[in-house]
Amino acid sequence: MSKININKSWKYDESLESTSHIKLKDKYDLFIGGEFVKPLSKKYFNTLNPATNQSIAEIADANDKDIDKAVKSARKAFNSWSKLDPKERGKYIFRIARMIQERAKEFAVIESIDGGKPIRESRDIDIPLAANHFFYHAGWADKLEYAFPNKKPTPLGVAGQIIPWNFPLLMAAWKIAPAIACGNTVVLKPAESTSLTALKLAELIQDSGLPKGVVNIVTGAGKTGAAIVNHPDINKIAFTGSTEVGKLIERSLAGIEKKTTLELGGKGANIIFEDAAIDQAVEGIVNAIFFNQGHVCCAGSRLFIQESVADIVIEKLKDRISTLIVGDPLDKNTDIGAINSVEQLKTIEKYIEIGKKEGGEIYQSKCSLPKKGNWCPPTLFLNVSQSHTIVQEEIFGPVLAIQTFRTIDEVIEKANNTPFGLSAGVWTEKGSKIFRLTKELNAGVVWANTYNKFDPSSPFGGFKESGMGREGGLHGLKSYLKFE
């Protein structure tokens, strides 16, 4: 009889998503007036695959003149788009939603190649949610007077929109759909490191027959974004990104009559009470901080565990993160993909070193990491206090700071002791605790017995240094309208 070797740990065979169906160009121009046009700057930059740090394509680098050209295109289109029968506007937006669904697999693969996130997340979360935002707002296009009774809603004009690199297509949909549903036109700039799905969306918009100039997509870095913010013929600025850049935008627009929505950084508190369903809560902790490599503004990056169950929760959490697979974003087995850029990896590593120097007890998964690319294992910090840098500052990576508490008053005080106010999570079987914390936590979004659940009909935004204004739902529509 042959001897059977039994391995104590499971090892999954590679399960790579195919890339044969995707179509990528070697070079992408600017999308202005319904056409792809070469940048007046005559400059391009490379976009890299963070899993290999190899170039994928060249992307146009727009200058002030390119932005002016895009704004003029949007202004010209506004004159007709804003007067179009709202039902017809809704049809165009609905068509875009259906086309995203039809090309979902291609979008998902490109999102993972360009951004580093696991294909399961791109496929099951980012792309379906992006389509849902267009579906949802298509339905509101001809119902704005019902949404805001006794008021006469009218569009603002041209919206300048700047989105981050962590959810490229979703953020584009999040911004574009409500703007055009309300009758505005758009000049959108994706992040320089993740422009590909926005440019593929431009191709889709071109195929959809949307009138030329309604949506313009321009690419570039910080200077390109500044040119949008400072352009005198833009009526609304919608920005999602870092708190530091948000503060710069707010200063530059002080005293200027431009509507502004800023969705900025966060340091979300995830609170586990002793009466919580512990195994469910552990899964919630993992989803809250390790989803998208921790590249989430509303990530539950601060964990508060009631003292009586702290040992068991931490033990289960350590066991759980030991099973997480860090690796190729296109492998369907992967739980944690590549860090978006070399610069972001250095930032995360800097904070990890700060955490250790300030006396935090570090625990990292002993998972194997690929030799090429940008990788960070799931990381826990124990024995930290409110004064630790890693508790106060946004890391934007797979790093969780863990503290304990005894009473509900104590955890409310600790959770609110931060300059941010974007998100929080509460895990308990008691509805009374949930209602109290949703009332007393300074957070724009509070999840109960779940985390990172998003819906186009639900408003999203924060307090304090997490921004101002809301996106999604009726609140998000209101920020793209004026009332006569």
Strand adjacency order, main sheet: 14-15-16-13-12-18-19
* Low-pLDDT segments: 1-8
Could you describe the largest sheet, including whether it forms a barrel?
7 strands, mixed
Span of the ends, CA to CA: 87 Å
Q: How many structural domains in the coordinates?
A: 2
Specify the CATH architecture of the largest domain. 3-Layer(aba) Sandwich
Number of helices: 16
Kindly identify the CATH topology of the largest domain.
Answer: Aldehyde Dehydrogenase, Chain A, domain 1
Structural class: alpha/beta
Instruction: Give the percentage of residues in beta strands.
Output: 15-25%
Shape descriptor reads globular
Write down the Rg.
23 Å
What does this protein structure show overall?
With 484 residues, this protein is of the alpha/beta class. It has two domains: 256 residues, Aldehyde Dehydrogenase, Chain A, domain 1, CATH 3.40.605.10; 188 residues, Aldehyde Dehydrogenase, Chain A, domain 2 (3-Layer(aba) Sandwich). Helices cover 39% and strands 18% of the residues. The chain contains 16 helices and 22 strands. A seven-stranded mixed β-sheet has the order 14-15-16-13-12-18-19, with helices on both faces. Strands 9-8-7-10-11-21 form a six-stranded mixed β-sheet, sandwiched between helices. It has a three-stranded mixed β-sheet with strand order 1-5-4, covered by helices on one side. Helix 15 links the parallel strand 18 and strand 19. Helix 1 packs across helix 8, helix 4 packs parallel to helix 6 and helix 10 crosses helix 11. The N and C termini lie far apart (87 Å). 52% of the residues are buried. The N terminus is likely disordered.
